[in-house]
Specification:
Layout (H helix, E strand, L loop, with lengths): L1 E8 L6 H14 L3 E9 L5 H8 L6 E6 L2
Parallel strand pairs: 1-2, 2-3
Length: about 70
């Protein structure tokens, strides 16, 4: 079974790492295949940069940057 979770983020720089870490742990502990799609919804803080950085650590994390 494959599961995709799509979660939008807007100016969540302080919370985004914890949220993704917990979702990743959920996938691992339940032995799920799939992906986490994180959408940076035109954040004006560092949310997008943080998502890009942690996507290197979590291979199931895909980052989408919503423009204009």
């Amino acid at each position: 079974m494959s599961l995709s979770i799509v979660i939008p983020f807007h100016n969540e720089g302080k919370n985004v790492s914890t949220t993704i870490s917990k979702l990743h742990a959920f996938f691992k502990s339940n032995k799920l295949d799939g992906e986490i799609v994180a959408v940076d919804d035109r954040s004006t803080d560092d949310t997008g940069k943080i998502l890009d950085h942690i996507s290197k650590r979590y291979k199931i994390l895909k980052v989408v940057h919503r423009k204009g």
